[in-house]
Amino acid sequence: MADVRTLEEHASFGGVQGFHEHGSREVGLPMRFGVYLPPQAKQGPCPLLYCLAGLTCNEQTFAIKAGAQQHASRHGLVLVTPDTSPRETGIPEADAAGWDFGTAAGFYLDATREPYARHWRMESWLMKELPDVLASRFPVQADRVGILGHSMGGHGALTLALRYPGRFRSVSAFAPICAPREVPWGEKAFRGYLGDDVSAWKDHDAVALIERGGRLPKLLVDQGGADQFLASQLRPERLEQACRSSGQPLELRRHESYDHGYFFIASFIGDHLDHHAAQLRAG
Ligand SMILES: N[C@@H](CCC(=O)N[C@@H](CS)C(=O)NCC(=O)O)C(=O)O
């Protein structure tokens, strides 16, 4: 049984929203995550949906602001909201680097560059450690797992699903960073975590991975037309081009007037949970 400490629990839509902490082997520090258990989980294991948040967020942000629990309750889905980086690492650079790098900006990869390589192991935490922690403590169906994310978390959902074919039965994103190699947020993160060899950056860039032949289950992406980061950081047209030329099924919906924030996510989260439930419950 994994060492998991429950920090908070709140009744929600017939189920329970909890926040937990465990001592992470991969990160070498305590890591926090939220788990929403729908009412169906009292009867037996349910499919699991990872929800990855963006820059400046923590394990509570998506759980508090997206309004996903009512839909997870309707569909019988467990929601997991991991924190977005290691915390209290004692590395001054990580806190001094601005809100788009370091703390709360893990980019869902394993850093190879010092001083980040020791603790910034978000990919290994999510892919090699957290699944076993969840399976040992919560009623989840380990073979029915989906992933969604917002912004940096959208980048995480796309790249993790591309890097681990077959691990996720359903994938979607809100306003993802589609081509991080080509935009300031991604360039700063990749240079800081991976170093100056830009060929290594391609392994963590959704557009590059799709162009290289990577495939996802049918992908749903929502993008606000009034998103303040649309042209400078997100570039959904690059994803559209890559999917079209590679034959990757993509439903990209553009919503005029919606900005980058959680009012946008909450407006369309029901459609995303419908999308995931249909694929997670099929077969
Ligand atoms: N702090 C940044 C904005 C950061 C931001 O928009 N973060 C997004 C993810 S990329 C978010 O979800 N923030 C949390 C929130 O809106 O509650 C700024 O000053 O422009």
UniProtKB/TrEMBL annotation:
EC id: 3.1.2.12
One term under GO cellular component: cytosol
Domain of life: Bacteria
Catalysis: reaction(s): S-formylglutathione + H2O = formate + glutathione + H(+)
One annotated GO biological process: formaldehyde catabolic process
Entry keyword annotation includes Signal: no
Catalytic residues, chain numbering: S151 (charge relay system), D227 (charge relay system), H260 (charge relay system)
Example GO molecular function: carboxylic ester hydrolase activity
UniProtKB keywords: Hydrolase, Serine esterase
Alphabetized Pfam families for the sequence: Esterase
InterPro entries cross-referenced by the UniProt entry: AB_hydrolase_fold (IPR029058), Esterase-like (IPR000801), S-formylglutathione_hydrol (IPR014186)
Signal sequence residues: none
Top-level enzyme category: hydrolase
Primary role: Serine hydrolase involved in the detoxification of formaldehyde.
Family of the protein in this entry: Belongs to the esterase D family.
The protein's name in its UniProt record: S-formylglutathione hydrolase
Organism whose genome encodes this protein: Ramlibacter henchirensis
Gene: fghA
